[in-house]
Amino acid sequence: MKARGEKIAVLTAYDFAFARLLDAAGLDVLLVGDSASNVIHGHETSVPITLDQMIDHAAAVVRGVERALIVVDMPFGTYQSNSQLALESAVRIMKESGAHSVKMEGGDVIIESVRRVVSAGIPVMGHLGLTPQSIYKFGSYTVRATDKGEAEQLMRDALLLQEAGCFAVVLEKIPAGLAASVAKRLAIPIIGIGAGADVDGQVLVTHDMLGLNREFSPRFLRRYAELHEVMSDAFRRYVADVKSSRFPSAQESY
Ligand code: KIV
Predict the structure, then answer these.
(1) Do 207 and 164 share a domain, yes or no?
(2) Banded model confidence at residue 204, pLDDT cuts 50, 70, 90
(3) Residue whose CA lies nearest to ligand 1 atom number 4
(4) Is position 1 within any domain?
(5) Which residues have C-beta within 8 Å of that of residue 212, sequence separation ≥ 6?
(6) 112 in a domain, yes or no?
């Protein structure tokens, strides 16, 4: 698709119902993101979600998909310490969920893990820039790689990930110009989130682009629906109907 200049559309999915809708809508890639930790499990960060939880989400997504490529985030603590652990975690994801590939956050510091997993035949997507699993190191979710040193390191990391065999790299919340340079320099697709338009594809967190969470509105987020209002209204009308005995009607009864 990169070679053809065709943009790649990616959204997150965490369950069967959403996966089915997303797949039918023509998404190229579904990312079972560890953002499930925030948007599904209600944690403040992506750090607490476990490998078992990610495998459960991924298996449900797999059951809903007929054609899209499924990428599963390897959660915090399942690949950073050594490449053997990384391989074991990735193998569990592939065998127990039926997904097609995994994603890891980081560059040079995790490169041995990336190589080991790729060499076992498991496709790996990289993730650079804002890497939410390292939130306690960075201390904030602000734009990354705005200074020259960090930008050069990001370019080096992107090249390293490509050399290590990654099939694509996510760039999160970095200057658009830098993301465009990385996309131009690398042969593999660059998928942006808050990384401008001149990359090979875009990813958003589905729950955010649907407007399920009114409080979260970073500049890069375009809301394609306001489901918070739609769903709240439906729930309120249901409560009112039950309380007033308007539901169920005679036609809705046996
Ligand atoms: O976990 C996630 O949803 C992600 C995307 C934001 C890229 O990693």
Answers:
(1) yes
(2) very high
(3) 33
(4) no
(5) 39, 227, 228, 231
(6) yes
Q: Tell me, yes or no, whether 235 and 173 share the same domain.
A: no
Structural domain range at position 172: 8-223
What residue has token string 């375009």?
Answer: 222
Q: Residue 155 pLDDT more than 90?
A: yes
Pocket test of ligand 1: the residue of 29, 34, 70, 216 to mutate, having most ligand atoms within 8 Å of its CB, is: 34
Active site residues: 172
What type of residue is 45? T
Q: pLDDT of 21-45, one tens digit each?
A: 999 999 999 999 999 999 999 999 9
211 shares a domain with 235:
no
For the beta carbon of residue 238, count every other beta carbon within 10 angstroms: 11
Is residue 79 domain-shared with residue 135, that is, in the same domain? yes
Which residue has its alpha carbon closest to ligand 1 atom 8?
Answer: 33
Query: Which residues contact ligand 1 via a Cβ below 6 A?
Result: 12, 31, 33-35, 73, 127, 170, 172, 193, 203, 205
Residue 218 CA to ligand 1 center (angstroms) comes to 14
| 231 shares its domain with 211 | no
d(C-alpha 196, C-alpha 202), whole Å? 9
Nearest residue to 46 via CA among 166, 172, 219:
172
How many angstroms is it from 246 CA to the middle of ligand 1?
Answer: 42
Q: 119-134, pLDDT tens digit by residue?
A: 999 999 999 999 999 9
Amino acid 208 reads D
In this structure, are 50 and 104 located in the same domain?
yes
One domain for residues 162 and 254: no
Residue 2 inside a domain? The answer is no
Number of domains in the chain: 2
Summarize the confidence of residues 102-125 as an average pLDDT: 98
pLDDT at 214: 87
* Ligand 1 nearest-atom number relative to CA 170: 7
